[in-house]
């Protein structure tokens, strides 16, 4: 009876995870500036890659060991609850060599475990874009073998995660997603890059929901659809982290007067086709902006230019979506694209990250 009462009085609240990619090679945000108590795990990009069946520590143009040390320092500052998880990237050929047979996988796995031990890591993230075709099942096999090896050495605390593309074709062709959903701890679902100039019309990089004018296959190009698809394929909800990107595509409009969603475009716009969150928030101070209440995103245009980058309101909507659907949490790409000095006057540093962390009850 007492016990039942306690449960009623203190219901178990789901706690959410918030993964933050951090690209060490983008020095607009220095490791010393990173926010405290915001992320639950930091995914370090740019320290290591796959080479000759080994974890290779990048030597140039900076030393990857410095990046790893700065993450351990960050973990200490963050009262040691923060997990540090380097993200492993590599050339397609290097990945394929490492996966090809059980001998190669075993050598690679030994190297991964030695590296994790020597660098005092909390996990490893695999960012192979993408293990398609014949490598689809070899990748699952590799993760399962690694899982066994890791469990022996580190127990169950050590996290194995991946980044996964959000398009249906990528998921179908490149991942045994249900199988991975069993052996991985977390899937960072890259719910962005849904639309680009290849569509020959304006479109949002990371819409939360479909628009009412979208029909048939067009209704698959949004966060809600991709996440639901993973669940349908058997991935547990609490292992799915919903992605936010600090970048958006720029477009050149065919006609400056036609500038809403799905307006005809003739090519990429300024900035070589990309705009960062900071550039966007500075731009909209003068150009103004619009809120699409169906897709839950902000967009702007001026003359023949059109762009959309996730702002704080879109970030808050995504975090609410995570909670409403009981997903495991969110992740960003990344800390290096947020505003570390409040250049945009949101009233706080790292406004995107802090908005998400607050909505997920972490701050
Ligand atoms: C592009 O603009 C031109 C001139 O305004 C117009 O004739 C043409 O139909 C437009 N193309 C598309 C695809 O809307
Ligand atoms: C997004 O759109 C709304 C409505 O137009 C606006 O109030 C808000 O400031 C916009 N966000 C940014 C970053 O400009």
TrEMBL record:
The protein, known as: GH18 domain-containing protein
The organism's superkingdom is given as: Eukaryota
Recorded hits in InterPro entries, A to Z, give: Chitinase_II/V-like_cat (IPR011583), Chitinase_insertion_sf (IPR029070), GH (IPR017853), Glyco_hydro18_cat (IPR001223), Glyco_hydro_18_chit_AS (IPR001579), Glycosyl_Hydrlase_18 (IPR050314)
Q: Which GO terms describe its biological process?
A: carbohydrate metabolic process; chitin catabolic process
- Domain GH18 spans what residues? 16-363
Q: Which PANTHER family match?
A: CHITINASE (PTHR11177), CHITINASE 12-RELATED (PTHR11177:SF317)
Family classification = Belongs to the glycosyl hydrolase 18 family.
Among Pfam families, the record links this protein to: Glyco_hydro_18
This protein's record includes keyword Aminoacyl-tRNA synthetase: no
Q: Which GO terms describe its molecular function?
A: chitin binding; chitinase activity
Signal in keyword set: yes
Organism name: Rotaria socialis
Output a single Gene Ontology CC term carried by this record: extracellular region
| Signal peptide residues on this chain, from the entry's feature table | 1-15
Task: Enumerate the UniProt keywords alphabetically.
Answer: Glycosidase, Hydrolase, Signal
